[in-house]
Amino acid sequence: MSIILKTTNLCKSFSRQTVVNNISLNIEKNSVYGLLGPNGAGKSTTLKMITGILKPTSGSIEFDGHAWRRKDLNDIGTLIETPPLYENLTALENLKVRTELLGLPDKRCHEALDIVGLTNTGKKRAGQFSLGMKQRLGIAIAILNNPRLLILDEPTNGLDPIGIEELRELIRSFPSKGITVILSSHILTEVQQIADHIGIISEGVLGYEGVLHAEENLEKLFMDIVKKNRKLPVYFK
User: Fold this and answer.
1) Which of 19, 54, 147, 233 lies in the 20 to 30 Å Cα band around 122?
2) Cα distances (Å, whole numbers) of residue 21 to 13, 33, 56
3) EC number(s) for this protein (predicted)?
4) Residue 53 sits in a domain of what CATH number?
């Protein structure tokens, strides 16, 4: 097994509250890893530490066999929360702004648009796109630099069934292109159809990590882990 990303006892605290508590992830190369958990479980905070947005309180992160360093962001693409779009620009213009900033050739714009299926949007401005198209454009921006690791935080939120299916097919295509995907979600049915491996976070604790089997009762596994780690109010103890 070849690991592209590894975290060891990763912790993050804000004031006196520990949001991420000793999380150790092992992300296999050229796979889709589903990071599951209820809202507020610590998924986004974990991803923000991996991408350098937040600094860990303690613990370590390794990328491709070495200690994480800021220049590793050249090999990591991210879409966390809403896509960072200029709504008055077309899809192509949005990408050209980024290639100018990153010093990438213009052909990467067309390659990225082709991968996400947005080559025929012409002069339509991003502000007129459907939510699904905006998500795909956000992913196009995230893969402009040919990343080896792509991090997607709740990418299907708010999408209709057609948008979800299109995005699902797109995400499943990435490992064959040499792109490992970490997909965070609380929608179990989506992860069941996309992921090769899963990690389940509840109350900031990684309660489970392993291969996702087709016959797995993911809902039962998820609920068992969440209930095990749930902190009850004092009057229930």
Assistant:
1) 147
2) 8, 20, 11
3) 3.6.3.-
4) 3.40.50.300
> Residue ranges of the alpha helices (H) in the chain?
43-50, 91-102, 107-116, 131-142, 161-173, 188-194, 218-229
Residues in Cβ contact with 70 at an 8 Å cutoff, skipping those fewer than 6 apart:
52
Task: Identify the H or E element spanning 19.
Answer: strand 17-23
Nearest in space to 8 (alpha carbons), one of 44, 46, 34, 43: 46
The count of structural domains within the chain is: 1
pTM: 0.89
pLDDT digits (tens, 9 = 90+) for 12-71: 999 888 999 999 999 999 999 999 998 888 998 999 999 999 999 999 999 999 999 999
**Is 237 within a domain?**
no
Q: Identify whether 155 is part of a domain.
A: yes
Can you tell me whether residue 187 is helix, strand or coil? coil
- Decide if 236 is inside a domain: no
> Angle formed by the axes of helices 161-173 and 107-116, to 10°?
120
Q: What is the DSSP string of 203-214?
A: TTEEEEEEE--T
